[in-house]
Request: fold
Amino acid sequence: MSLLRKAALCGLFFCLTPNAIAAWFSDTRPIMGTEVSVSLWSETSGTGKQAVEGVMAIMEGVNQRLSPYIPSSDLAKLNSEAAKAPVLLTDELDLLYRQSLWMFHQSEGAFDITYASVGHLYDYRQKIAPTQKELEAHMVALSTRHLVYDAKARSLAFSQPNVTIDLGGIAKGYAVDLAINYLKGLGIKHAYVGAGGDSRILGDRRGRPWVIGIKNPRKKEGGADTVIKLPLSDVAVSTSGDYERFFIDDTGQRIHHIINPKTGKSASEVMSVTILGEEGIATDPLSTAVFVLGVQKGINLVDKLPGFDAIIIDSTGQVHYSNGLMPPSP
Ligand code: AMP
Ligand code: MG
Reply:
């Protein structure tokens, strides 16, 4: 074929399908107090760029509606009004409340969105933890049992003053579900969406699995970033770690963001919990719950619930697996 004819044919091809550049489209942005990453395969650059922007807009929308720090958010309004009178829940808050209640019961109270009644006394950046006296004064407000739900009216009231809800243990997993469902709707078949420790993947990486790494919870300078690599497809993965937000106090104790609702203090039995399951709205709170429960009770819970698996790194660095991930015994 002459050079001229080849050029003419190429011209025709781009003319008919100006957008037809199949490629990976990726971006990472700071949203929801963490890093949101997306990577997706699109047959056209128009859809690819639109999809990345769409995912970021979904994540920012969740932040605006569910951040307890944004006074206009649905959650902030609930927190400021519900001790005075029942507050009507949005569909989203209703869903997240019911899912949180389910996890509260499954975990025998280890997952409790009212943890924030004492949780807000901690400031990890400023290295501030409550005194024992402050803790005791606020612990009375920490219990999901103070939440009075009216299923018919779909409203929530607080039976105690000073109750505070925070959805930090479930909102990111929920947000990655929203993003993946949006991508499915656009016809995307291969994608990764991550928000901090919560991620979900759609399909495979075009013939290869996605590889999700479990972070080394005590990474030393020059050491490996990840301790375990998981080849996966079509799954939600949530990791809770004591290295995400923490400080070391004067006594050498690690004060971090996962609170044991029974004590009001950081849970200390394990360093990291990874949960695999179908949806982030379940893997996210389950990873937090198992972190609080520790190895034995945590593995028992995961083995009891169909469709989930767990990898736990305990406080000595030993790795524990749920039944579904155990190599079959000889
Ligand atoms: P994750 O990183 O998913 O384990 O979630 C940790 C986040 O969940 C924290 O930053 C808090 O916002 C919230 N959280 C901490 N402790 C609890 C708890 N016991 N129950 C529910 N949410 C919690
Ligand atoms: Mg979690």
Remarks:
- The first helix runs from residue 3 to 16.
- The pocket of adenosine monophosphate (ligand 1) is lined by residues 111-113, 115, 166, 168-169, 197, 240, 244, 257-259, 261, 284, 287-288, 291-292 (CB under 6 Å).
- Residues 99 and 321 are 25 Å apart (CA to CA).
- Confidence is low (pLDDT under 50) at residues 1-16.
